[in-house]
Amino acid sequence: MGTRLTERSANESLSAVNDSSLSVFETAEDIHQYTAQRDTLKANETGIKPLSLLSYVWRVIRELSGDDAYERYIAQHATNFPDTTPLARKDFFLYQQQKKWSGIQRCC
Amino acid sequence: MKNSLVVIIVWIAVALLGSAALGGIALNRGESINALWFVTAALCVYAIAYRFYATWIATKVLLIDPTRATPSERLDNGRDYIPTNRWIVFGHHFAAIAGPGPLVGPTLAAQFGYLPGTLWILFGAVLGGCVQDMVTLFYSTRRNGRSMGQIARDELGAIGGIAALTTTLFIMIILIAVLGLVVVNAMKHSPWATSTVAATIPIAMLVGLYMRSIRPGRVLEGSLLGVTLLLLAVAGGGWIEHQPGLREFFDHPGLPLAWMVITYGFAAAILPVWLLLAPRDYLSTYMKLGTIILLMLAIVWMQPSIKMPAFTQFVDGTGPIFGGKLFPFVFITIACGAISGFHALIASGTTPKLLSNERDIRMIGFGGMALESFVAIMAIIAATVLDPGVFFAINSPAGVVGKEAADAVAKISSWGFPVTVAQMNLLAQQMGEATLFARTGGAPSLAVGMASIFGSAFGQGMLAMWYHFAIMFEAIFILTTLDAGTRVGRFMLQDMLGNIWKPLGRTSWYPSVLLSSGIIVAAWGYFLYIGVIDPNGGVNILWPLFGISNQILAAIALCVATGILVKSDKLKYAWITALPLVWLTIITSSAVWEKITSADVRIGFLAAADDLASKLASGLLSPEKAAIAPQLIFNQRLDAVLTLFFVCMLWLIVFDMLRVCIRYLNGKPVPPLSEVSYQLTGMENAWVRD
Q1: Alpha-carbon distance A71 to B480, whole Å?
Q2: Cα separation of B592 and B581, whole Å?
Q3: Interface membership of B336 toward A (CB under 8 Å)
Q4: Which of B461, B69, B531, B561 is nearest to B262 (CA)?
């Protein structure tokens, strides 16, 4: 789960935005620096250890294939719409398929 | 300081290595050349373009802003708009853009030799295709993930929107027809291939039932089951091949197979998606990714030699697979892999609704296309590792080289590409096929190339298995594109018909579903039918038509992007999209010009129609040819009208874009930028939810 900013840090970010040198990438280095920072933060948060590498790969495979789509939907639903009942697993799956194949999904 | 010095040295080394590899490929004459040079050259070109050009576009032109909230964050509803890890988005985006196009086009274009196709794939991609995908993704992200058609309408006006919509519909129809033809040519008189492809249908349905009713939503379990069954089906096809009495059920000439594909297409379009389309897409995605990775490993490990010369004499336009000179036809034949307008529809579809941060646009837009271009490079390697004589024997239609094997090898050998009947028979036997002659379309020669690469890497005893695995792999995602394309075509048509009579626009009203699906299937079924009965192999007609329409769609996307750049006061950077746009306009216009005016019957539609008509009138045709001649004549004239229509659409939108730009630069009112206003991201770390 991404961390939502607290009010204080949001204000700090806002002042950072006003300082134009930080709001937009100026050079290639900025992008790479940003990536590096992000990846470090991420590694710290998830605490990747050799043992958890396998479970990380497994998580990526599940997410990439959509195997965990329902679990993510439930988690998201609980945060955003706590007062309503989420769809059942089967209904969610059917809804998702229907929606996916109503637009252009595959190219030449 | 020390670090940056190392970085500079590394990049200089990459540049030197890339130039050496490219120079080696370009200047090599006569001797065979190691395929590893192609891989090296490609990787260096992509790396440099990604690191410098893409970064420059991101930071100086588009002004990508990582603090800006993306649509997935602002509109997060857990369904359409979902902030997603960038690698996951990359995976979805790549799976969506990489279809059979980058495999078929380069294989056909190998008739010019290995060099023209390779150079166009590399430079077309980094200067054209990657830029188009990245810029379109960026603009759609800044507009709540709106589609290219909608953006065209908002930014340029109604004309742009209509041009984008109609071209999309037509390209879909041509695309499905030509892909259907590729599958039909691969299954023709091949019980093994036909039974394997047929088996994919019940397998997909079984997986669909599994995922829906037995274990709802367990995608991985279902896919694992399906992939296992598919591999068994490949082996089972080999068994059927050797069962007299059973093999006849799957041994058909082209025309009945075409009718089967058409019937199947209609059935698939009206069945619920969970039953056939969705499960087969899961299977085809795994097959696609798995095979591409396997092919890459096998090429790097085996380092096969390229046997095709850098250029063949067919650059003069006399090529057996399709007529037409190097310019402009190599650029038309290879659309996907260099630049593909269809990608703009994906980049303005689901992908922008998943992006969690604008920063990822460079990797997903530019990087995704670079990877697809790499797939095209592998396809060209697989086609050119074959002996050129074998390559031409597989791909030349009977109408060009003759129906009898002896005639065909004599003709092909006379071009300077020696091949013998014995050699072709042995190859066919090794691949478990009755014959490999006149298998135009790219799939069989690619499968032979892949089988020989896999065979040398993993054991020669399995050649026939590898060949049919490759055929199954191509067929399964061609059929997915066919289903998905028919459905999208149906929705677009229903959308249009709904303007005439409201109920027709209701996507769940069954009479409307049947009617619109029927119209779309009839449209591509017609081109498929003509392609199959055409003795010169319909690929000669259909593939250029597809290439032209796909490039014109790309030109439309680039028009929209150029218009937005100018309207955002970035005139001095507008060349990043304007240059590829100019190039596409030149090549598509000159290709259309040739297809309409050329006096060569193998190039000009009208010349071919007139030639056939005069032969028919003077009774020079054999009875069976005379019977189909009126249809062929009509089709050639229809194709001429179609290409003219495409190019008119292109010029219409080019002028519309120029009109908007000139008005803007002169301070006159133009449609305002439809960009959504800035909102600070609330996600501190943009990897969200992984």
Answers
A1: 27
A2: 16
A3: yes
A4: B531
> Which residue shows structure tokens 């990877």?
B371
> For residue range B214-249, what is the model confidence (pLDDT) as tens digits?
999 899 999 999 999 999 999 999 999 999 999 999
Chain centroid to CA B198: how far?
23
Query: Distance from A23 to chain B by nearest Cα, in Å?
Result: 6
The complex's ipTM works out to: 0.79
Of the partner residues B78, B281, B550, the one whose CB lies closest to the CB of residue A77: B78
Contact B38, B306 (CB under 8 A): yes
Cβ–Cβ contact B74 with A under 8 A: no
pLDDT at site B688: 43
Nearest CA to B151 out of B162, B140, B138 is that of B140
Q: Are B245 and B200 in contact (CB under 8 A)?
A: no
Question: pLDDT digits over B236-291, tens only?
Answer: 999 999 999 999 999 999 999 999 999 999 998 889 999 999 999 999 988 888 88
Helix (H, G, I), strand (E, B) or coil at B305: strand
- Within B76-218, residue ranges assigned H as helices are 86-97, 101-109, 114-124, 130-141, 148-155, 158-187, 191-209
Q: Pick B683's closest partner by Cβ from A2, A45, A60.
A: A2
**Which ranges in B303-367 belong to alpha helices (H)?**
326-333, 342-347, 351-354, 361
Nearest-10 crossing angle of helices B148-155, B539-567: 50
**pLDDT tens digits along B370-394:** 999 999 999 999 999 999 999 999 9
Please tell me if residue A82 touches chain B, with a CB cutoff of 8 Å. no
d(CA B507, CA B497): 11
Q: How many other C-beta atoms are found inside a 10 Å radius of the C-beta of residue B679?
A: 12
Beta bridge partners, B305, equal B34
> What are the residues facing B97 on neighbouring strands?
none
Of B181, B187, B212, B182, residue with least CA distance to B279: B212
What's the token pair of residue B58?
């991101």
CB count within 10 Å of CB A22 equals 15
Interface membership of A8 toward B (CB under 8 Å):
no
pLDDT score of B175: 86
Which residues are CB-neighbours of B313 under 8 A, at least 6 positions away? B415, B416
**Does residue A56 belong to the interface with chain B, where contact is any CB pair within 8 Å?**
no
Rounded to an integer, the average pLDDT of B97-116 is 93
> Quick check: B689 and A2 in contact, CB under 8 A?
yes
CATH fourth-level superfamily of B2-189+252-665:
Amino acid/polyamine transporter I (1.20.1740.10)
Q: What are all long-range contacts of A97-102, with beta carbons under 8 Å and residues at least 24 apart?
A: A97/B273, A97/B274, A97/B278, A98/B273, A98/B274, A99/B79, A99/B80, A100/B273, A100/B278, A100/B350, A101/B273, A101/B277, A101/B278, A101/B484, A101/B487, A102/B487, A102/B491, A102/B507
Query: Phi first, then psi: what are they for B475, rounded to 5°?
Result: -65, -40
How many angstroms separate the most distant Cα atoms in chain A?
A: 49
Nearest chain A Cα distance for residue B52, angstroms: 8
Closest Cα of chain B to A49: distance in Å? 17
pTM for the full predicted model: 0.90
CB atoms within 10 A of CB B599: 10
Interchain pair A34, B52: CB under 8 A? no
CA within 13 Å, CB half, B5 = 2
The domain limits of chain A are 11-47, 49-108
Distances (CA, A) of B564 to B140, B327, B636: 11, 31, 38
